[in-house]
Amino acid sequence: MCRLRRIQRKSWQSSCDKDVLLNILGVLTDLLSLGTGRRIHYVISKGGSEALLQALISAARTEPPDPSILLPLLRLLARVGQKDRKFGIKVQKAEATDVILSLTRQNLGHHLNLTHCLWVLRVCASNVAAGTTLGINGAMELLFKVITPYSKQHIRTVRAAIEALAALLKSKSNSRQAVNRGYLGGLLRLYQDWHHNDVSNNYIYIRRGLLLCLKHITNIQLGRETFLGSRGMEILFTSVQDCLSCKNLDPIVTTVTQILRKCYPKEPLPLVTVRSSYSFPLPGNVKTERPCMGSEDDNESDSEEDMEKDLNKDDVEGKEEDYDLETDVNKLRSRPGLDRPEEELGQYEAMCPELSHDFQELDSESEEEKKSEDRSANLPSTSSHFIPSGNSVEDPNHRWRNQSGTEAGSDPQEKDFKASLQSSIKKEKCSRSLISEKREIVEAVQNANSYEEDPAKSHTFSPCPLPKEAPWYKKIFNPECEASIDPSSGVGSETTEIMTDLLEEHQGNIPFHSPHFYIARAKCTKSIPAYRDLAFPDFWGHQPPPHGTPMLDRHYGVQRDKVLDDVRRLIQPGDLIGRTVFDLDEPSHSSPGAPCCLTFFSKFESGNLRKAIQVREFEYDLIMNADVNTNQHHQWFYFEVRGMKLAVPYRFNIINCEKLNSQFNYGMQLVMYSVKEALQGRPRWLRAGHDISYYKNHYRCSAAAGGSLKGKCYYTLTFSIKFPHEDDVCYLAYHYPYTYSAMMSHLDVLEQSRNPKKVYWRQQALCQTLRGNTCPLLTITAMPESKKSDDLEQFYSRPYVFLMARVHPGESNASWVMKGTLEFLVSSDPIADLLRKCFIFKIVPMLNPDGVINGNHRCSLSGDDLNRQWLTPSSQLHPTIYHTKGLLYYLRSIGRAPLVFCDYHGHSQKKNVFLYGCSIKETLWQAGCMVDTAVITEDVGYRTLPKILDKVAPAFVMNSCSFLVEKSRESTARVVVWQEMGVLRSYTMESTYCGCSHGLYKGLQLGTQELEEMGSKFCLALLILHLKSFPCSKKVMAQAALLLDLEEEITITDRAQRCSPNNAETLEICWQ
Ligand SMILES: [Zn+2]
User: Fold this and answer.
1) Which residues are CB-contacts of 687 (< 8 A; sequence separation ≥ 6)?
2) By C-alpha distance, which of 355, 347, 398 is closest to 895?
3) To pair with 813 at 20 to 30 A between CA atoms, which of 47, 474, 541, 836?
4) 181: left (phi over 0), alpha (psi -120 to 50) or beta
5) 990 noted as active-site residue
6) SS3 state at 242
7) C-alpha of residue 694 to centroid of ligand 1, in Å
8) Tell me, what's the pLDDT at 65?
9) Catalytic residue (choose from 990, 1010, 1012, 1013)
């Protein structure tokens, strides 16, 4: 390096001594050709580029130019310029562009010199401004003189010229000029020529270089139009077919695919409007035409890159996250006032009946217990929450809407419940008689049907639409009756029979699921389209398969194959059908049951197919409905398909997805449910689909269809499926569906199956949703051991845990996790028993029933993302949020803010299960702010629960957790409950839609079993948290020690921490 410096100190640009100059160039060349780039960067930092450029200008001026000086100089310039990010600017400053161009021109006949000139030219052109200047001064014409059709002569020179041209074409003005001068057609011809003649694939870099020129030139609209007009699509599509089988040619295939995708003519979605097919008038004259939320801005740009190359960069966090962090300490530490008058909080006292219950009934009840072993006799009469009677909900405002007193009094469905309750208890206690069970269910269903005789209310549900063209059904169930079914007799009697038959068929061996309860619940569920049909899987039930499913191996080139197949629609339209086979908006336009055509359906709870178009014989484009009252948010899908052939791979394309990327590119599969499989004893959703890919497509939102969303891009999720049976009825979904009716019927089963002597259970109505569905609120804890004041005192003073789920309807995984939590909480597991004695659980298992029912992905009926409304929820538009927050305010006002708050969600971009929490210090630290630890002390207790989960829950990964407070999340439940209620342990729990990258389930996709397990392990973690962090009675500790085999270190270290006065202080500083 010393030598280098010395050499530079000499002002060699003014040296006339040729020998000295040659010497210097030689030494520099030697020095820079060795070692890493560090030396070059050193030269650049010391003004090396400028010096070399000056030397070039001087050398070019001497007449005649001396090649012995020019050659090493050009070589050095190319090398240094490549590493110098400001090289282009320096070239312009030194006014060297003309010199370089004229040198190139002078050396057209001298290939060695020419190649060196072209290298320098290429480096200069990498700066767009310098490239533009070069273009204006004729660089492109010059290069076109050098680029020849296929020839083995002067390959290096031709390559250098092509690469220089590609660099020049990054400038839009050059691209425009090139198109106007007809170069685009020339490039296409050159490419074809090289492609045809380079049969041994010796000159891949030249072919790729020509493609790069085309790729840059088609970044401008004019370029794309000219490309199309020059038959560019046909030429590239046809030529690339020869390259697909050869792995060496991947760079060519990838570049061709990029160009084809970009140039494919943009089209609007085949819809009249992208606005949801369903609208709902909002209360208080709020316009349903809500302003659209900022969509992920993703307009056509120069840098449209193929996603395929990012495939290994899994779980990449957005770099913008840091700018989103809240760095205002005062804001982080402030506690905003109430968002409503304080008097309003009084109404929530009724939602804490456990705090005023005197348990006078305890003794008499236990005596009764002794008399009879049959638990059903002890069902509290007020607990028939299914149709709650007046006194089950103390606040008259919280009664079910449209509920008349007479209905509540003698409800025929109540009988059904008891009938099957008794049967389920029998099942538990002794081997039950299958025949009598069946008779009971049949009777129950007949009762249910007779209840429906009032024509005003009557909508007969069928398990799935079973129209006349359902031969599969008749064959399976009723082969002998096939002829006797009179098609004109109406749907009613047929469906009754079908229902009865189906229920008889049901084995009743799916734990916590009863088809019978499901039907009863579904009848009361209010949807906007007034659904009359049940999806079979929701009704029949789902039993997880015994083994997990590995993530799908992604075959190389899946995406490009699919894209090329899409392009084929344009090039070879011969096999296109283009027939609409399902249309929610115009049912008459659809032609179901056409020969050789699948039949689609989705008018059932959580279904959301809007349109299906048969593209080719075995390929369908599908469009999902937007969230109600919005024109976007499509990602979730759930629909039925029937009439399939066996062993044929059907390709489905969901063409209006919105997210920029998806776990479908990283091993995730969708889920499928086969009715025939279910009837053969395998009732289950399974991960299904192969050749899955997710990519940006050529559909854009038009002004006519989408107004302000004009220009918005859409993405295709494509997958192929081979159905397991011929003429089956199958259901396909984004993720394991979990409907509102499923949740309500599961709550019924749970309540009935609990041991009322041990489990305190209350189900109340938190409020009504906009559509008039009840949002249930659960209270679960242990019954006090006795009426004695000590026991009652212990009961009343238990700390609260507040859990909720499914604010986002598309995140059905959250509901399965919640199902696991609830089943564990009411179970007879001794750990659950102990846990109930430690906490009172307040649970809102589904915060957005209307969204779930109507097949939304993100929003409620108001068109709002409910998890962005927590700062100031509206009682009219966001009642479930308003009242959940009200209840939390109430708990805080009586000094009982929850110890743990957790909101269950699903995550579409990341793997594993993890928590988001809130920490001031971690946020400031991550944002790079100076943190004065003396000023900000913070209880680190928020880290304990995730650390425990990391140990006890196989799907949970601590490293995926984050405790940062982002500005964009300031209105979410987690942040608001942390900030306004002062809950230190306020979390969002995110469960992946895909699978795990760590731990026991590494490489597996999560199924409902793993999700439910997560829910139960969360309970276990809460118990350990309690033992570690809070005072417990000796009795509890002793029981826990027996059950959990607790490690010494956990108890001791955490105790010490808990007792430290410092810690108590931090809490105060933080939250007072
Ligand atoms: Zn969510």
Assistant:
1) 549, 552, 669, 670, 671, 672, 1005, 1007
2) 355
3) 836
4) alpha
5) yes
6) coil
7) 21
8) 74
9) 990
pLDDT of 290 reads 53
pLDDT at 10: 47
CATH of the domain at 839: 3.40.630.10
**CA–CA gap between residue 812 and residue 823 (Å, rounded):** 17
Could you tell me the distance, in angstroms and rounded to a whole number, from the CA of residue 908 to the centre of ligand 1? Answer: 9
Which segments of 706-797 are extended strands (E)?
713-722, 729-733, 759-768, 774-782
Total count of residues recorded for the chain: 1072
User: Is residue 536 classed as helix, strand or coil in its secondary structure?
Assistant: helix
Q: How far is CA 808 from the centre of its chain?
A: 11
Instruction: State in Å: Cα 294 to ligand 1 middle.
Output: 17
What is the DSSP-derived secondary structure letter of residue 630?
A: S
- If one counts the domains in the chain, the total is 4
Residue 293: partners with Cβ closer than 8 Å, 6 or more residues away? 632, 865
For the chain, which residues score pLDDT lower than 50?
A: 1, 7-15, 292-319, 366-459, 464-492, 1047-1072
Domain check: are 762 and 728 in the same one? no
Q: How far is the CA of 808 from the centre of ligand 1 (A)?
A: 5
Calculate how far, in angstroms, residue 973's C-alpha sits from the geometric centre of ligand 1: 11
Given this model, what pLDDT does residue 364 score? 57
Going across the sheet that includes 985-992, the strands are 759-768, 774-782, 840-844, 800-805, 900-907, 985-992, 913-916
* Domain with 702 in it: 549-733
Q: Is residue 348 part of a domain?
A: no
Domain CATH code at residue 44: 1.25.10.10
User: Are residues 166 and 207 located together in one domain of the fold?
Assistant: no
Ligand 1 centroid vs 487 CA: distance in angstroms?
46
User: pLDDT (tens digit, 9 = 90+) per residue, 207-261?
Assistant: 999 999 999 999 999 999 999 999 999 999 999 999 998 889 999 999 999 999 9
Q: Is residue 227 part of a domain?
A: yes
| Short-list 875, 743, 745, 731, CA closest to 809 | 743
Single-letter residue type at 434: L
Instruction: Output DSSP code: residue 1002.
Output: B
pLDDT at residue 1037 in the model = 84
Indicate the residue type of 164.
A
Strands 900-907 and 800-805: parallel
CA distance 842 to 962: 25
Three-state DSSP class for 567? helix
Ligand 1 centre to CA of 627 (Å) is: 15
Is there a single domain that holds both residue 119 and residue 214?
no
Q: Over the chain, what is the mean pLDDT?
A: 82
- pLDDT tens digits, one per residue of 918-961: 999 899 888 888 777 666 788 889 999 999 999 999 999 999 99
CA–centroid distance, 489 to ligand 1, in Å, is: 46
DSSP per position, 151-219: -STTHHHHHHHHHHHHHHTTSHHHHHHHHHTTHHHHHHHHHHHHHHH-TT---HHHHHHHHHHHHHHTT
Q: Specify the CATH number for the domain of residue 707.
A: 2.60.40.3120
Measured at the CA of 559, the angle between CA 553 and CA 563, to 5 degrees, comes to 155
Q: Same domain, yes or no, for 164 and 206?
A: no
Nearest-5° angle of CA 896, CA 388, CA 1019? 40
Q: Which amino acid is at 181?
A: R
pLDDT at residue number 606: 97
